[in-house]
Design goal:
alpha+beta, Immunoglobulin-like, three-stranded antiparallel sheet, 13 strands, 15% helix
Amino acid sequence: MKKRCSFFSEKEAVSPVIGVMLMIVVTVILAGAVSSYANSMKTQDTAPQLILQAKASIQDGYVHIEHMGGDTIAKRDVQVGIESGYPSQTGFVDNDKVSFVPNDNYLNPGDEARVNFTHSGSDIFITFDGSEIKQQVELGEPFRLMIIDSNSGQTIYSARITLSP
């Protein structure tokens, strides 16, 4: 008669308590990893939503921007950029060259903003100048006006404007 090997005859496994504890440990580690990843995600500020309309005239001496509707914006929270020329160059107008009318600190629906430029002796050129910009725009030449929200870094408004007489 053959003797059976007792090595394979005993069928004991890890107890259920240890198995449950291992599953709990794995769950806690996964929850910690997901929580760490979720907390490291930075939420992005949303830019104000508004409708603007802009035009520029040498005769007026400024770029006229009308707030047609949407959120109110604060002057301290925006930057006004001008892009022109070939190859195109972009610069930001100094805040003292930008005025909001009637309230100089906020632009509400129905209000207007003005971006001042200098007009040289000739009738065909204007210049946007400041600490971060020195650009000439010729009569009839289109240029891009951009209004950027400083808090979120997003462009609020961008339009291609043609300089009129």
